[in-house]
Amino acid sequence: MSVTPYSHSKDSKKQQVAQMFDAISGKYDFLNRSLSFGIDVYWRKKMVRELKKIKPQSILDIATGTGDVAITMQQLHPEKIIGVDISDGMLEIGREKIQKKNLQHIIQLQNGDSENLTFATNSFDAITVAFGVRNFENLSKGLSEMHRVLKPGGKVVILEFSKPKIFPVKQLYNFYFKYFCPWFGKIISKDTSAYQYLFDSVNAFPEGKEFTDIAENNGFTKMNCERVTFGIVSLYTAIK
């Protein structure tokens, strides 16, 4: 059974995820920096380094949220970056950040469904997703769409939470994610479910080889999984 933010709701996971991010959008960046102790900046820089060799001119950032990955990707000097997300609340904040940085000529954010992308086949040199694939309603369909719009030889870079295996990181991680994050997230965002969903969705996500197998079944090749920061996150890369 799919993990959803609001177990009492009859809405689809997609609708619930959009509702959840709309609700916490105003506090999302603060919570992101705080709960990750700023390490999320380092994780995004690793995503950039993965794409430096191919020098992509067109980048699609899926589940772009408030645009942090898209903004970081401008360091690669592409011709265009398009970010898509299903939360208008997150996109609104992202557009404000992009305008303040005067990057609107390079980065465009738009509402879009990752499982039904509106772009033509073979449109992008690279695709990035940071902490978004576990929110897909249909993971296989989302990966299939990513493969479709990526150009032959193009690269995908996916960052997602994973579960540490080593002592005592595993135990500390579980306590932090299960108890502290939901408590702190509730206080700051006023949403009682969002950060409980974070813990539940990470636990339910098919990480490591299970995820790379799904990606390969949807056409990706040269899959690689690098566990980062003691296994708290995994960095997946693949080629079309």
Architecture blueprint of SSEs:
Layout: H1 13-35, H2 39-51, E1 58-62, H3 68-73, E2 80-85, H4 88-100, E3 107-111, E4 124-130, H5 139-149, E5 150-161, H6 169-189, H7 194-204, H8 209-217, E6 221-228, E7 233-239
Parallel strand pairs: 1-2, 1-4, 2-3, 4-5
Antiparallel strand pairs: 5-7, 6-7
Helix pairs in contact: 1-4, 1-6, 6-7
Molecular structure report:
This protein has one domain: 3-Layer(aba) Sandwich (Rossmann fold), CATH 3.40.50. The chain is 45% helix and 21% strand. The chain has helices spanning 13-35, 39-51, 68-73, 88-100, 139-149, 169-189, 194-204, 209-217, and strands at residues 58-62, 80-85, 107-111, 124-130, 150-161, 221-228, 233-239. It has a seven-stranded mixed sheet, sandwiched between helices. The protein is globular and about 45 Å long.
CATH superfamily: Vaccinia Virus protein VP39
Question: Per CATH, what is the topology?
Answer: Rossmann fold
The end-to-end span amounts to 30 Å
Taken as a percent bin, the fraction of beta residues is: 15-25%
Order of helices and strands: HHEHEHEEHEHHHEE
The radius of gyration over CA amounts to 17 Å
Shape: globular
> Helix amount, in percent?
40-55%
**Which class in CATH terms?**
Alpha Beta
Largest sheet: 7 strands, mixed
Task: Give the integer mean of the pLDDT values.
Answer: 94
The helix count comes to 8
Number of domains: 1
The CATH architecture assignment turns out to be 3-Layer(aba) Sandwich
Q: Provide the spatial order of strands within the biggest beta sheet.
A: 3-2-1-4-5-7-6
Assign the structural class, choosing from mainly alpha, mainly beta, alpha/beta, alpha+beta, or little secondary structure. Answer: alpha/beta
Can you count the beta strands?
7
Uncertain runs with pLDDT below 50, 5 residues or more?
Answer: none
